[in-house]
Design brief:
Length: about 400
C-alpha cells in the first residue's frame, strides 16, 4: 500500500516542535488550486517546462519589484531582483561567488544551523557574534572587527537573520542596524540579510531592512515563498546591486541550467497576480500569532521558574535557556522516548558547547492541542532530568 511522504523531521505518533514547517492547513488552499489550474491553462505556461531565463520568471520578478517598493520602499528595479531556488539556493550561490575559501564570514551566535552547514560547505571560516534580546550586540561586533583588523584578516561578509530570527525569534533593533551598516562601510564587508520571515510579523511595523537603510549599497537581501506559500516549490529571491545580480545571473550553474524553478515560479506569479498573496499572508499572521501566544501561555503555565525563553514578535520560533545543571541533550533524549521532538541548541552555534543548555521550539507546525501538550511534556521532562542530575 502506498504511504505518503511525511514532512521532514516528523514521525507517526509524535509531537514535532522540531522544524519550521508551515501549518498544514495553509497548504494547497482553494486559492492555490485556482492559481495552479489557471497557470496550467494559460498560453504561456508551456515555457514553464523549458529552461527558464537565468534571472528568473519575469512575471514574478515584476511582482516582487512592485511589492518590495510598495511595502518596504526599497526603490529597486527589475535589474536588482532575481529568482532563486529558495533562500537555501540564494545563500549557497552568494557564498560560492563572494566568499572565497578560507575567508571569514561573521554570523550571529546562535545562527540558523542549516545556514552554518551551507557556509561550512564552502570552506569559509566562521566567527560568531553574541546576541542579546535586541539582537546582535554591536559592541561585540566592533571589538571583533578591531581584533581582526590588527591581524589584517578582515571578514568578507556578515550573514544575519534580522527579523524574527531563527532560532531565537528575536528582531534586531533598527538603531543597531544603522550601527552595523556603519561598521560594514568602515571595514569593507558585505551584509547578507536572510529576511525570509519578513511578512510574518505579528505587529503592524517591521524595522527598516539593511537594504533600505543602506540604499542597496553592499547589502544582499534574501527572501522566500517557502514560509508564505509552500516550501515544496523551492522559490525564493535575491535583491542586490545590479553588478551583483549580473555576477549571479552569469554564474556557471545558471548558465548551464537556466533560471530557478520556472514551473513553480509561474504558479506563484499567477497566485500573486490574482491578488491572493496579501490576504493569504494576513491569514498566516493570525494563525502564527495565535500559535505563538498559545506557546507563551503554556510556557508560563508549565515551565520551571528557572527556565527562560524569548518572546518573538513574528516568525516560527522560540528559544529556551535551561538551568546550568540541565543538559539539553539529556532533555531531548528523554523527550524523544516520550514522543516529543525539538531542536537542540548545540547545532546553532559554531562551537556546539555554547548551546548545551538551549532548545529551539518551532510553534508553526503542531496543532494547538499538540503544541500545549508538547510544552507541558517538555516541562515534565526538564524536571525529571533535573532530579536525575
Amino acid at each position: 500500500m502506498f504511504q505518503p511522504d511525511l514532512p521532514q523531521g516528523t514521525a507517526e505518533g509524535t509531537i514535532s516542535l522540531l522544524f519550521g514547517h508551515p501549518d498544514p492547513s495553509t497548504l494547497l488552499t482553494p486559492a492555490m488550486r485556482d492559481a495552479l489550474n489557471s497557470a496550467m491553462n494559460s498560453p504561456q505556461f508551456y515555457g514553464a517546462f523549458q529552461y527558464g531565463p537565468e534571472q528568473g520568471t519575469r512575471a514574478l520578478i515584476k511582482y516582487l519589484v512592485d511589492k518590495l517598493n510598495r511595502e518596504q520602499q526599497l526603490g529597486v528595479q527589475t535589474e536588482n531582483v532575481m529568482i532563486t531556488a529558495g533562500s537555501t539556493g540564494a545563500l549557497d550561490m552568494v557564498t560560492r561567488l563572494f566568499a572565497p575559501p578560507n575567508s571569514i564570514v561573521l554570523v550571529e551566535a546562535p545562527s540558523y544551523a542549516d545556514s552554518l552547514h551551507v557556509l561550512r560547505d564552502h570552506h569559509v571560516r566562521l566567527r560568531g557574534i553574541p546576541m542579546d534580546d535586541q539582537g546582535l550586540i554591536v559592541t561585540e561586533l566592533e571589538r571583533i572587527l578591531a581584533e581582526l583588523n590588527v591581524a589584517n584578516d578582515l571578514p568578507i561578509m556578515l550573514y544575519t537573520i534580522p527579523n524574527y530570527h531563527n532560532p531565537t525569534g528575536i528582531t534586531l533593533a533598527e538603531s543597531r542596524r544603522v550601527e552595523i551598516l556603519n561598521l560594514a562601510d568602515r571595514y569593507g564587508f558585505l551584509i547578507v540579510e536572510d529576511d525570509v520571515y519578513h511578512d510574518l510579523g505579528f505587529e503592524s511595523t517591521v524595522p527598516s531592512s539593511f537594504y533600505a537603510l543602506a540604499d542597496g549599497k553592499s547589502v544582499l537581501s534574501i527572501g522566500s515563498f517557502s514560509k508564505t506559500f509552500a516550501p515544496g516549490l523551492r522559490v525564493g529571491w535575491l535583491v542586490a546591486d545590479k553588478n551583483i545580480i549580473d555576477q549571479c545571473v552569469n554564474c556557471g550553474v545558471l548558465q548551464m541550467g537556466g533560471g530557478s524553478n520556472p514551473f513553480s515560479a509561474q504558479v506563484i506569479a499567477e497566485f500573486c497576480s490574482k491578488g491572493y498573496l496579501e490576504p493569504h499572508i494576513e491569514t498566516l499572521r493570525a494563525i502564527y500569532k495565535q500559535r505563538c501566544e498559545a506557546a507563551l501561555t503554556a510556557l508560563s503555565r508549565y515551565m520551571p521558574s528557572d527556565v527562560r525563553w524569548t518572546h518573538p514578535r513574528g516568525g516560527f520560533f522560540l528559544w529556551l535557556t535551561l538551568p546550568p545543571t540541565v543538559l539539553a541533550s539529556e532533555v531531548k533524549r528523554v523527550a524523544n522516548e516520550r514522543g516529543l521532538n525539538f531542536a537542540l541548541g548545540e547545532g546553532f552555534f559554531i562551537d556546539p558547547a555554547d548551546g548545551r543548555h538551549n532548545l529551539r521550539i518551532a510553534f508553526s507546525f503542531a496543532a494547538l492541542p499538540d503544541l500545549e501538550r508538547g510544552l507541558e511534556l517538555l516541562a515534565q521532562v526538564i524536571e525529571t532530568v533535573r532530579r536525575h542530575t
